[in-house]
Amino acid sequence: MKQSTYECLVVGVDGSDASLTALRWSATQARLLRTHVVAVHVWLPTGTHRAPYASPAELPSPEQDRRRAA
What we know:
Layout (H helix, E strand, L loop, with lengths): L8 E4 L4 H17 L3 E4 L21 H8 L1
Parallel strand pairs: 1-2
């Protein structure tokens, strides 16, 4: 078997129909080229979402919450 000159095929996916079609096409091409696919999912942060984790030192105390709510 001839080794592929492509190390891998990179395809961006975002869940849309078009990106899933591109992923399927890439998988077919990768088989033909004897290589593998690297699927990449990226997004633009909107600034409205917070990190899923905050250290306890960064969280307000119950007293601070009460004052803020008053």
